[in-house]
Amino acid sequence: MKALVALILLVQLPIHKAVPAATPAPLGCDDPESEAAAEVAVNYINDHSRHGYKFALNRIKNIRVLPQKLNNDVIFLELDLLETTCHILSPTPLANCTVRSFTEHAVEGDCDVKLQKLDGKFSVLASKCHSHADSSEDVHQFCPNCPLLTSLNNTEVLTTVTDALSDHNSKTADVYLRLLEIGRARIQHLPAHTVSVEFAVAATNCSAEEAKDNAKACQLLPDDQSNFGFCTATKVTQPSQDLRVDCQLYGHQPGVTYSQGQDTSAGLVPSVVQGFTNHNLRFSHNNPVASESSSSEFPTSVLSGKSVAKRAVAEVAQHDKVPRPVGFVPPLPPCPGKIRHFKI
Question: Measured between alpha carbons, how far is 172 from 257 in angstroms, rounded to an integer?
Fold first, then answer.
């Protein structure tokens, strides 16, 4: 009898089923981990860019995490960047570079970046970028009299750069400078006809005095002695003549080089010859030392908005086991993220 009672009591005991481990909630675009990954990505892009200016993060548009193994994730980021006032050759840290204001005719960069997070450390596997200037209509809508970016091979622009560099070399007692590339140019017609330019330069093996006799013989310094710099100039042609030039040399920076790609006696890289108004961040790079061995391609299904939304709903639903009313839609992770500067 006692055995029967014990058996009845055992049958009535509640059975505890094993609860599966919760799936981590998907990352939002403004989560600290997302921002840490974006910082690594932006630094990588600037470190591998060869022309134009450094770019700063404006917004994280999308993020997708694909777990691989324990403590090993592949992360896809879609980033909006903005051009800063720091040339790519400048030693100024990105954190100290000023993003160009909207009224300066801003330039936006769009980047897709693939990273690996291995044992808590981020590394970039591949990246694709391009950039474009804001539309003239947008600029003039808020600033009707602001000058717009003009073609870098515009005749007035080339003349202003030539005159500015000649003026600097004729007045300095230091080294003779040669033009590397024209970075930006704007022309304002009213109230005075003004051409404003920015251009990168490099020191040669001649002094300015020596160059007066035979400037063509002056060569850029070798990589282990290179000294790059940056100039800004403003030339007023009407109603009166005026030229103002300011040049600064950065000093030698070990490991920093400049890829000319063609004869830059005129300071023109291929994109300039085609008449562009800005150096396109046409950047595509695969990291040859990355430890992750899978393809570095960017699957469109990973970064497309619809796919991200569907996957996020599924992940949140898996994470949240609490019964919900019929028709309940789990909240999506907040993407795109916050705008840090302004929207183009």
Answer: 25
Q: Is 30 exposed, middle or buried (0-12, 13-18, 19+ CB in 10 A)?
A: middle
Q: For residues 67 and 333, what is the distance between their CA atoms, to the nearest angstrom?
A: 17
Q: Which residues, 6+ apart, have CB-to-CB distance to 219 below 8 Å?
A: 204, 205
Give the span between the Cα atoms of 27 and 10, in whole angstroms.
45
Q: Is the peptide bond before 336 cis (omega within 30 degrees of 0)?
A: yes
How many CA within 13 A on the CB side of residue 20? 7
Please identify which residue in the block is written with the tokens 């560099």: 165
Token pair belonging to 58: 């404006």
pLDDT digits over 177-205, tens only? 999 999 999 999 888 899 999 999 999 99
What's the whole-model pTM score? 0.80
- Could you give the CA distance from residue 51 to residue 268 in angstroms, rounded to a whole number? 11
CA angle 50–39–223, rounded 5-degree value: 30
For the chain, the maximum distance between any two Cα atoms, rounded to a whole number of angstroms, is: 121
The three-class DSSP label of residue 47 is helix
Lowest-pLDDT range of 72-76, 174-178, 322-326: 322-326
What pLDDT was estimated at residue 14?
A: 58
Averaged pLDDT for residues 5-33: 64
Distance CA 197, CA 22 (A): 57
Q: Where are the alpha helices (DSSP H) in the chain?
A: 2-12, 32-48, 136-142, 155-171, 208-214, 270-273, 300-303, 305-319
CA atoms 120, 124, 130, 133: torsion sign? positive
Question: How many C-beta atoms surround the C-beta of residue 341 within 10 A?
Answer: 17
For the beta carbon of residue 260, count every other beta carbon within 10 angstroms. Answer: 14
pLDDT of residue 13: 55
Residue 95 has phi, psi (to 5 degrees) of -60, -20
The single residue listed with the structure tokens 């035979």 is: 214
Distance CA 46, CA 104 (A): 21
Neighbours of 192 (CB within 10 A): 12
